[in-house]
Design brief:
The chain is an all-alpha fold and about 180 residues long. It has a domain at about 45-165: Serine Threonine Protein Phosphatase 5, Tetratricopeptide repeat, CATH 1.25.40.10. The protein is built from nine helices and no strands. It starts with a helix and ends in a 14-residue tail after the last helix.
Length: about 180
Amino acid sequence: MKPFYLKIGLSLYLLLSFVACQQTAVQQLSTIEQLESQITAQSSATDIEKLEQKYYLYVTCYPKDSLAPEMLFRAGTLHLKTNKGHEAIADFDRLVQEYPDFAKNGEACFYKAFTYENILMQLDSAKIAYENFIKTYPEDHLVTDAQLCIQYLGMNAEDIVATFNIDETDTLLSEE
């Protein structure tokens, strides 16, 4: 009985994808922009899911369009902002794999490492991802941030502050 439902579900998905792809790219972008403007910190999970689906639909319908990688990047950052770590990493990996020349791939790789560190709490994976980012994108503006992330990986704010060498003569609280 399960294969029957699987076939029905797959058929419905293909039909909906076909119908949705009948919209022009401009219509889909308009819908995406409208949804993005409505998303706030208080947005419901349903609203966020609608936007996610629109990003993926655009990439599916127009994979060769110059905005397709941007839509995938936005999906990844949306997942990052909503603490959906596994989904964010999958989006960033797909972006780099399918669109190797996209200008924001360095940023996507940094966000992947950041996701491992701060969302998934997988520090070993975070370190590897930060190192891979530094090696792959040595000229990126986020390299210094990645180096600091590696240096302070796993430390809480108090531990990080304790590593600073503060000279008493340099503080505002020192006696004159």
